[in-house]
Amino acid sequence: MAASEHIWHCGAGLPGDVLIADLRAYRYAPHFHDAWSIGAIERGRCSFTVQGHTHVAATGDLVVIAPGQVHTGGTSDAPLAYRMAYIDPAWFDDHARAMLGGAARISGPVIRAPALCAQWLHALAPGAMDDGERRERISAALLGLLGAHGDATAPADSDASDVCALLRERMATDPACAPDLDALARAQDRHRTTLVKQFARRYGLPPQAWLRNWRVARARVLLRGGVPLAQAAQAVGFADQAHLTRVFKQVYGSTPGVLLRAGSQTL
């Protein structure tokens, strides 16, 4: 029988969340996170896509996906066990400055480094662990990753004058908005279909799918801050809490309730 388990740890003192997953025939639909996703494969093998390109990771490998990169995941054949940290971008940048003197990127998305993978597995180990100790372990593992596989990189040039970038910025600023794609397309003397295709090529998802994913990310922040589920759903533009719950599970593999209960539990 197909089964899957998603165990979250959301300690108040951590720079993000920790996910421990043990999957059987479970696949994630294309989605993105607003955090750095750094995962260690404990056992098994998975084939996944990042920005439309296929990659394979196996036991002893690290998977690194930058914020906003659209990807799939999971397994459709053999069992897969991995531990993933969703690192706050500001915390990541602090470590990049300390290690490399400025903004950085990490080579990947698959890094074959068994010793480094073991360090991340240790940092993300299940079981009782003080948040301070876990934070120190994650910090050391991140510095190790940046030192071995990080590259200093200059900030990207702004493309704010482009209609796709303007649309993305508008949706990011106000997740509850309902952008008028027809009006935006007409203002740029193009067809709605053209705008949708151009946006999808640049950001990995069509505008409405991108907005739905972003709404989930923003709702997650509200829920972690103690906002009730129904109120969080309304604040980011979902029809109701059932709609938020359904999309939330598609992106994170578990319902909002599972994530919230983890906030006061140990692994």
Count of distinct strands:
11
Q: Helix amount, in percent? A: 40-55%
- Sheet with the most strands, sense and barrel status: 7 strands, antiparallel
Global shape: globular
Distance between the termini: 25 Å
- Could you tell me the mean pLDDT? 89
Structural class: alpha+beta
| Helix-strand string | EEEEEEEEHEEHHEHHHHHHH
How many H/I helices? 10
Residue fraction in strands: 25-35%
Radius of gyration: 19 Å
Uncertain runs: none
Characterise this structure.
The protein has 267 residues and is of the alpha+beta class. Helix content is 43%, strand content 25%. The protein has ten helices and eleven strands. Strands 1, 2, 4, 5, 6, 8 and 10 form a seven-stranded antiparallel sheet that branches. Helix 4 packs across helix 6 (192-203). The longest helix is centred in the middle third of the chain and has 19 residues, at 131-149. The protein is globular, with a radius of gyration of 19 Å. The chain starts with a strand and ends in a 5-residue tail after the last helix.
Helices, strands, pairings?
Blueprint lengths: L3 E6 L6 E8 L2 E6 L4 E15 L2 E6 L2 E5 L5 E5 L4 E8 L1 H12 L3 E3 L3 E3 L1 H10 L7 H19 E3 L10 H11 L7 H7 L4 H12 L3 H18 L4 H8 L4 H12 L3 H7 L5
Antiparallel strand pairs: 1-2, 2-8, 3-7, 4-5, 4-6, 4-8, 6-10, 9-11
Structural key phrases:
267 residues; alpha+beta; seven-stranded antiparallel beta sheet; two-stranded antiparallel sheet; 10 helices; 11 strands; 43% helix
